[in-house]
Amino acid sequence: MKISEMFASIQGESTLQGIPSVFIRLAGCNLYCRYCDTTYARSGGTEMTVEEIIDKVKSFELSFVCITGGEPLLQKETPELAGKLVGSGYKVSVETNGTIDASSLPDNVKRIIDIKCPGSGEDGKTFMKNISLRRNGDEFKFVITGREDFEYARHFVSKHNLADIHTVLFSPVLDVLNPELLADWILHEMPEARLNLQLHKYIWPNEKKGR
Ligand code: SF4
Prior knowledge:
Distance between the termini: 22 Å
Strand order of the largest sheet: 3-1-2-4-5-6-7-8-9
Helix content: 25-40%
Bound molecules: iron/sulfur cluster
Shape: globular
Mean pLDDT: 96
């Protein structure tokens, strides 16, 4: 597999926020979001086998593992990696940009599925079977750059009843949308959503990610 980086840090997002976790960042992405904060992961990467990755995960001595990118589902071994990590006793989440079929991921992997809004420049590319075949435990994330994105996200959530049993995460782009403003919109207009501040960017504003 092509690995951009592996490190231990505090999970900054989703309902797993705050949990010390190992991050496996896979290299490569099929999108070009305007606000992308991991452009370095779009290309390159070090070749590692699934077994080598799992050995390195073990060296961090943590229980939670987050497979992210880039776009992790571009690599065909990702479901195998996730399944073997679960089989080794880890609690595993996969963060995907939502444009690729996520059904190959094992059932006991938490899927954090991004739905791209207009501010990304990549809206309309969601693989819609990920929505119709969603599973218990899936979380849906909307990165919000402004009012147009908020309206888009609110409409999408309502149209697909996403908030019925799923956590819906609204995440403001740092230095683009004031979190206070998004909090106000959520409180008054979309209380089903959960404000998702990227905790790691407040802890480590200068790129340091952990250890
Ligand atoms: S999907 Fe994620 S990694 Fe890919 S360009 Fe968008 S923000 Fe960056």
